[in-house]
Amino acid sequence: MSHRNGRGGAGEQTESAEGGASEQMSRRRLVTASVLAGASASAGAALAPCAAEAQPRRRERVEDRVAELEAHVATLERQVARAHARGAVENVWSRYQYLHTAFRDAEIITDLWVKPGTPSISAQYTNTGVYNTWDSVMAYHRNRPSPVGKLLVHFTTSPLIEVAEDGETAKGVWIIAGVESGMSEPEVAARAPANFFEPGLVEGKKVWAHWVQCRYALDFLKQDGEWRIWHFRCVEISRAPFSKNWIAFASEMQANQRTSQFHNDLAYFGDDGRPVFMPPVDGPPKSIAHSYRTDRAFAIEPPLPRPYRTFSETFDY
Asked: Which stretches does DSSP call E strand in the chain?
């Protein structure tokens, strides 16, 4: 009995100890859970303002990026528009040469030049002077004949084109190389310098057949969505009959004032090879530009175009 009583006492002590440990663990768990809950609540409370502040910043970053993209797109649109304008301007000039060499001047007047009444229109073909009214500029094109047996071929090359940033005007410079030729009755040819013609006769007529190189400088104006010629400048670089080189011909021109003056005043050879001279100019030349001479260093005249924003910031041809 005494042994049974002894075992029973030890068991009671063990159970009592285990119960106390269990209660302590439960209390610790409750305290830990409480602390964690509080900490979580505190962290949530602390993070809430940060999240609220971050949302406007994210919106600002998105709006800034959208603004950057819109500015980039606007820049690309301007570049595309100017590239398109450059092509359109070059087409105007190429069309001019096709029509000019086919003597279709009526289309040049109606389709390519600025409209009547456009301010500051001008054309300068030589150092004699400038035409600065619509009627005087068109006088060169009106009634320009298409003589039988006459051939003009102008190969347009070396384009240098600048379109204004505002898209309203453009400037362009080209070089053309080609031939100009025709036939004249001998009695008509006798009134022109002899060195303009080839030796002998073809079909009973005198032949003029020239190699020619020119520089053209133009300003273009956009009217009703179309590019049109506004200011026109032609500078003959060199010329020579087929049977003579341009250096020898230039030397002859320099030495003979009559020949030089005839060449400056000549507009074209008309019907039956008759020379037609330029009408009187309206004013002095805008600037002087020289053909090739044996006594002068060659220069680029008039000056080449440079990038510009609007026409008031540049010169006119």
From this structure: 122-126, 129-131, 151-163, 169-184, 206-223, 226-241, 266-269, 275-277
Q: DSSP string spanning 113-170?
A: BPPTT-TT-EEEEETTEEE-SHHHHHHTTTT----TT-EEEEEEEEEEEEE-TTSSEE
Cα separation, 107 vs 151, whole angstroms: 19
Strand partners, 241: 210
Nearest to 243 by CA among 204, 202, 189, 196: 196
User: Taking a C-beta distance cutoff of 8 angstroms, is the pair 213, 177 a contact?
Assistant: yes
3-class DSSP assignment, residue 41: helix
Q: Is 169:187 a contact under the CB 8 Å cutoff?
A: no
The letter for the amino acid at 130 is V
- Distance separating alpha carbons of residues 277 and 178, to the nearest angstrom: 22
pTM tops 0.90, yes or no: no
Tell me the domains of the chain and their CATH numbers. Answer: 74-313 (3.10.450.50)
What tokens appear for 127 in the block?
């150092």
Phi and psi angles of residue 148, each rounded to the nearest 5 degrees, phi first = -65, 135
246-288 pLDDT per residue, tens: 999 999 999 988 888 888 889 888 887 888 899 999 999 999 9
Quickly tell me which residue has 């260093």 as its tokens.
Answer: 297
pLDDT at 48 over 80: no
User: How many residues would you count in the chain?
Assistant: 317
Q: Reduced to 3 states, what is the DSSP secondary structure of residue 197?
A: coil
What's the mean pLDDT in 209-234? 97
**What would the two tokens of residue 263 be?**
């060449």
Sign of the C-alpha dihedral computed for residues 224, 136, 90 and 286 taken in this order:
negative
Phi, psi of 276 (to 5 degrees): -115, 130
> What is the C-alpha to C-alpha distance for residues 11 and 255, in angstroms, rounded to an integer?
144
Which residue, among 149, 150, 59, 50, has the nearest Cα to 100 in the 3D structure?
150
- φ and ψ of 150, to 5 deg: -95, 135
pLDDT for 55: 76
